[in-house]
Amino acid sequence: MSYHGGMPLKMNRTAFVLALVLALPPSAKAASSAFSKVLVIVLENTDYDRAAAQPFMTKLAARGATLTGYNGVAHPSQPNYVAMIAGDTLGVKDDKPVDLSGRHLGDLLDAKGLSWGVYAEGYPGGCFLGDKSGRYARKHVPFLSFTSVQKSPAKCARVQDASALDADAAAGRLPAFSLYVPDLDDDGHDTGVAVADRWLAGFLGPKLDDAGFMKGLLVVVTFDESASKTNSRILTILLGAGIKPGSASAAAYDHYSLLRTIEDGLGLGDLGRKDSSASPIDGVWSAN
User: Which CATH architecture best describes the domain 35-277?
Assistant: First the structure.
């Protein structure tokens, strides 16, 4: 059989895609058929047990899937955020502004013609690269740490103030990948997890009940790191498309596993870093 562009000439596109899906491992098959969009919401600096005891988090766990063996990959905050989109901390060890080269999740999405964006509370716009502005902190917006974004007005424009989320969703413009970054109060960084839990109930609760908003959408609620420096376990809950309500997995996952799951689910390939060897999240999909 001859080939053209990686596709057998005698095989139509539908059959070819089906063959690729059938060749995937079971976890990748489940993820690849489960969602078409992802929204990741990151909260701050809380140990697993304390986060899991919060009232709204408890409701989310019953509604979604809890990853009880999920861990952050570093301390302090910034290297965890970089890891989430780059598959590595890239040598980042503190929260000071950095300028990084190399590829990131946005590049994989661009290569597939898929959209991505960041909704950051208090973001002043204009490709602001300062350390802070009011309750906004650049260290929690990892895309702005990459020079390929910094030097591109079009890519910088994908980082917006969080107020744009509702309008984008209503207009059907929610990107294939969205990172939602609460400010230093709402994420619990300066206020504690009880405040973050109440904020999340007001922000996310109504959206979970909106069928239009949730169509095809995987929502990930996670934390950047634990408060403890000796135990890195953090609460991570998956909700929405393809997720088995009330399920749980005790497997050892981390930010690289989440990135790998997003890459597999959206058909992006990988970055060739720690994401390429990470295990995609399994055992919580309705197809499992």
Answer: 3-Layer(aba) Sandwich (3.40)
